[in-house]
Amino acid sequence: MSQGKYIGVLTSGGDAPGMNAAIRAVVRTGIYHGNTLFGINRGYQGMIEGDIEQLNRYSVSNIIKDGGTCLQTARSSEFLTKEGREKAFKNIKRFGIDSIIVIGGDGSFRGLHQLIQEFPIQGIGLPGTIDNDLYGTDFTIGFDTAVNTALEAIDKIRDTASSHSRLFIIEVMGRTSGYIALYTGIGGGAEDILIPEAPMDMQKLTAKLNAQHKAGKKSSIIVITEGEAAGGAFEIKSNIEKVIEWDIKVSVLGHVQRGGDPSAFDRVLASRLGYESVLAVMNNENDKMVGMANNTATLTPLEDTWTKKKDMDMTYLKMNEVLAAQQEKALEVIA
Fold first, then answer.
1. Same domain for 192 and 111
2. What is the pLDDT of residue 334?
3. Residue 213 CB partners (closer than 8 Å, separation 6+)
4. Residue 100: helix, strand or coil by DSSP?
5. What is the DSSP secondary-structure string of 186-222?
6. How far apart are CA 161 and CA 247, in angstroms?
7. What's the pTM?
């Protein structure tokens, strides 16, 4: 393994609980192995502006438990230009940095990949996004905490739904990925889960809800992803109201899912990925993302993280349909 490297670490895109744990692991692993570590503040924009500082092991003391990111994050339109990336490269070379570790999602990885293609710089990505939508890793940093945050809200909403005999439509984050909705829906005992990976027929949904309501069901929970093809929560509410006379409420959980102290799972995952990212740098790996698959550290080409689709196990969705069913399936008579 190569020692004595000058490694810069940054967080980019949307923040995710556990990013601080990853930063801590990168810094302390890097220093332990004889490297020099730099924190690049405010993502790629900070790189462009030269907002860079050397870090020591005490720079990351007591941050493992904190949400957000101590390095802050930002989206940079300037970095999308060749001139902006050239300015960023000149700044990191001014500090002697020869390797970059980027904690973020596919947009952040696209930027890192482009920088590597244009300039002589080594780069490794860490999957930091609550959406859990990156190919090459079973789980992303922040996903578990976001699910638990949403689940806590759903449990509270279930109480008021039952008390008032209401149907609640709860919209969670995830863009084009339904992982948060799927996991919180199952954990919260939702009657229906609407995700982009399995588009729902509105006619089928309303017929199902109408049957449940006529059978005497007093309350119900539907969890949807913000990017659901059938429309947002308010549009789905409007469509259901045309068919069913039910007191329907909408709750959009929004950015509360990004905040809060990271769960134990996210702290451990982020620490492992941060540790493995430094080893990858020292092994001269480049243009790859460190992930975890089947509890084993893996390396995936950065380009694969956005060109390949992460498969979702639809057994979980079918399982939820069975668990939420209002009646037994008719037994088949075997001759």
1. no
2. 46
3. 220, 244, 246
4. strand
5. HHTT-SEEEBTTBPPPHHHHHHHHHHHHHTT---EEE
6. 10
7. 0.93
Report the number of distinct structural domains present in the chain. Answer: 2
Tokens 């079973």 correspond to 138
Task: Dig out the tokens for 57 from the structure.
Answer: 């092991």
**Which one of 15, 51, 98, 131 is the catalytic residue?**
131
pLDDT at 228 (0 to 100): 65
Torsion of CA 238, 172, 249, 198, to 10 degrees: 40
Across 14-111, where does the E strand assignment appear? 36-40, 52-55, 99-104
Q: Please check whether residues 117 and 165 belong to one and the same domain.
A: no
- pLDDT the model gives residue 231: 62
Q: What are phi and psi of 165, to 5 degrees?
A: 55, 55
List, for residues 300-319, the tens digit of each pLDDT value.
Answer: 999 999 999 999 999 999 99
Both tokens of 2, joined, read: 């190569």
Q: Do 14 and 125 belong together in one domain? A: yes
CB 320 within 8 A of CB 190: yes
The pair of structure tokens assigned to 133 is 């939508």
Determine, yes or no, domain membership for 314: no
Owner of token pair 């949403």: 150
Residue 211: per-residue pLDDT:
80
With a cut of 70, list the residues of the chain below it in pLDDT. 227-231, 326-335
- What pLDDT score does 238 carry? 87
- Per-residue pLDDT tens over the stretch 203-228: 888 888 888 777 777 788 999 998 66
Instruction: Specify whether the CB–CB gap between 108 and 43 falls below 8 A.
Output: yes
Rounded to the nearest 10°, the torsion over CA 178, 184, 187, 188 is -120
* Known active-site residue 131: yes
CATH code at 55?
3.40.50.450
